[in-house]
Amino acid sequence: MGDVQTAESSNKARLAIMELANMISVPMSLNAIVRLNVPDAIWQEGANTPLSAVQILSRVLPSGGGDPENLQRILRMLTTYGVFDEHLNCSGDDSHSPERKYSLADIGKTLVTDAEGLSYAPYVLQHHQDALMRAWPLVHEAVLNPTSEPFVKANGEGAYSYYGKKPEMNGLMQKAMSGVSVPFMRAILDGYDGLKGVKRLVDVGGSAGDCLRMILQKYPHVEGINFDLPEVVAKAPSIPGVTHVGGDMFESIPAADAIFMKWVLTTWTDDECKAIMENCYKALPVGGKLIACEPVLPKESDDSHRTRALLEGDIFVMTIYRAKGKHRTQDEFKQLGLSAGFPYFRAFYIDYFYTVLEFQK
């Protein structure tokens, strides 16, 4: 009996390693369908009618051309990851090769451009640009020598300064962050009331000011300060009630009764986080709050989608932003807060990916 089970489990293991070894097909195919604008072509303002590869191609390439068979191969593979739903029509004469049609499943719908021009599509594209792809074969280098991240080894400088010199990369980065931030901020504003009564709010690393714009829609009396690097705020659009301030969070942060930041601490080392948080502490009055929205790792490792997304994001940070920047557990964040002087800490699990961390002075 033992031998039979061993043969069966060995078979499964060999199959699993084949899937893992070919896993690059998944993100790169996702990248391909975004570049081909397939989600918008299928969605058509909510129709989401199942279409064949030929029909999809005629929409994305109205002047003709393209290979529908190759497109179908990509659509079919992504169906197995819940991006598309496949509809088989076997009633024709030639039942040997049934007609396959595709509509968007829930995951695919995240890639559809909404009324505000946003989606998760730029986030997918941003992750697969040439400069980032060059870093991935060097992940092992983060183990051998963590003094610089694989991105630096591949491109000669850090990701943020690299983006700063490439307007198209910076633009895509901002669009990617907006596409991710807006649905998350809706969840936060519905499920978290820690911004009630705040008069002056600084968003550290606020980029184009999307988060503040949404906060002010709910709390119109807040005075918003969008604080980011001078070259970032120089391109930020004018928003009523928001002042754009350029500076360096490692030097000082504008005074306020609450400080907001999203996905900032994750991309820095423990020492750098402590320095940022100490500057937050100095900028706040007693009772003032630092509200940080960050991915928080669970204690246990399991194969749930949430744990996988968080741990995969952790490797992304290690590869692209800081070899010792990382996703942290709730307790690690609490300890960072204490080291920076914050005596009170609470965590709110509102969104599946980001957690709201409240540090109070």
From TrEMBL:
Residues 139-342 form the O-methyltransferase C-terminal domain. Residues 18-114 form the O-methyltransferase dimerisation domain. The keyword S-adenosyl-L-methionine applies. Signal peptide: none annotated. It holds the Pfam family Dimerisation. It comes from the Eukaryota. PROSITE patterns: SAM_OMT_II. Keywords: Methyltransferase, S-adenosyl-L-methionine, Transferase. SUPFAM superfamilies: S-adenosyl-L-methionine-dependent methyltransferases, Winged helix' DNA-binding domain. GO terms for molecular function: O-methyltransferase activity; protein dimerization activity. GO terms for biological process: methylation. PANTHER family: O-METHYLTRANSFERASE. This is O-methyltransferase domain-containing protein.
